[in-house]
Specification:
Oligomer: single chain
Mean pLDDT: 91
Helix content: over 70%
């Protein structure tokens, strides 16, 4: 069949919905506005607090699909150097990430002066700042500077692991390896996906490593293969086998969401009508800027939480309105970060400047007496 575009309005629209769900989850989970507004919609707020985080699985599946589309659309690596591909990904991720974390550090310092709540981060340490700047916070057991930034570190690990997998297959010696590179790579993806779903994802102590999450990511990669295959049935059967057996071994809601997402992705993107559909424009735009919204929303929500819950601490209606306002302002701030920072092609010097800016701002906030 004709290969569909790796990026369609449908994918961006789904990312937009997942992005809104994540912001809603953090608004419901962290409070204090949600604590005050709970009386108005206890079921809805409780659902967002408990289950909204499942939207991360959607991002993982889509991330695997898009990684396969960009790195090896025909099953064979199309990048020249693995190191260059990984470095390029790091720089593209880290520049808007550092800008957003710098904003979070400043907002946290401001809010800390008048709101005492568990959602407000403590003053950062130098080790914490450096670990966050390098995506190492969970690995070295330092607290994250913002909600959800663990996902950025995991996304980078998953991408780097995928690059190394395809690069290793391409380097396979001998003519046989060259002729069958695509088959070997897909076999390795299947094996790694199965190992993650059946073993590693059942070990919570590994949740700072890519292997824990590769199951959902690998389902996305295999969904890409199914979309492009002449016959999708064998690949759909494989997806069902991998996901179904994982759920039979140990039922996990997150894996069920990932499996359903992968299956729906294949069904949708093999349809010419769906691929040609322009989607719902506002959701498509949110999906395109979802990374920026994801990065910046915690700072915005923290500030709105502090203002609304301080001025109207006993009004469920006004605090519910504050949650809606926080969502709207998060989208606006994400739009600004997307247009001003994320869309521009960064360089290593730009990345280094923003990383140093993050560390410097954090030190100024935490140790002002050292700079007197």
């Amino acid at each position: 069949m004709t290969s569909p575009s790796s990026r369609t309005p449908l994918i961006d629209m789904v990312k937009g919905l997942a992005c809104i769900a994540i912001v809603g989850h953090h608004l419901a989970f962290y409070g204090p506005m949600s604590d005050i507004a709970l009386a108005l919609a206890p079921g809805w707020i409780a659902w967002l607090s408990e289950h909204g985080r499942m939207a991360v699985q959607v991002f993982l599946v889509l991330g695997g699909y898009l990684a396969a589309a960009s790195l090896a659309p025909r099953g064979v690596a199309r990048f020249e150097f693995a190191g260059h591909a990984v470095a390029k990904r790091f720089v593209r991720l880290v520049v808007p990430y550092a800008v957003a974390l710098l904003l979070t550090v400043v907002v946290s310092a401001l809010v800390r002066t008048w709101m005492d709540h568990p959602s407000v981060p403590d003053e950062p340490t130098l080790a914490q700042l450096l670990a966050n700047a390098l995506f190492l916070q969970d690995i070295v057991q330092e607290e994250a500077l913002s909600a959800g930034v663990w996902y950025v570190a995991i996304d980078f690990q998953l991408f780097a692991l995928s690059v190394l997998l395809w690069a290793a297959v391409r380097a396979w010696p001998g003519a046989w390896g060259q002729r069958h590179a695509a088959s070997v790579a897909r076999t390795l993806v299947v094996l790694l996906t199965a190992a993650s779903l059946w073993i590693f994802n059942r070990m919570p102590g590994l949740d700072m490593w890519a292997l824990y999450f590769f199951g959902a990511y690998g389902l996305g990669m295999l969904a890409h293969t199914a979309v492009h295959a002449r016959y999708a049935s064998p690949w759909l059967a494989l997806l069902l086998l991998l996901g179904g057996s994982a759920l039979w071994i140990d039922y996990r809601g997150r894996i069920a969401v990932a499996l359903v997402t992968a299956l729906c992705l294949v069904a949708a993107l093999r349809s010419e009508r769906v691929r040609a559909w322009g989607g719902i424009a506002p959701l498509v735009r949110i999906g395109q800027m979802s990374y920026s919204v994801f990065l910046v929303h915690f700072a915005v929500c923290l500030l709105v939480n502090a203002v609304v819950s301080t001025w109207w601490p006993a009004s469920p209606a006004l605090n519910a309105m504050g949650m809606v306002l926080a969502l709207a302002l998060s989208l606006c701030a994400g739009r600004w970060l997307y247009l001003r920072v994320e869309r521009h092609v960064p360089s290593w010097s730009t990345a280094l400047r923003w990383q140093l800016g993050l560390v410097g701002a954090g030190m100024l906030v935490a140790f002002p007496h050292n700079w007197a």
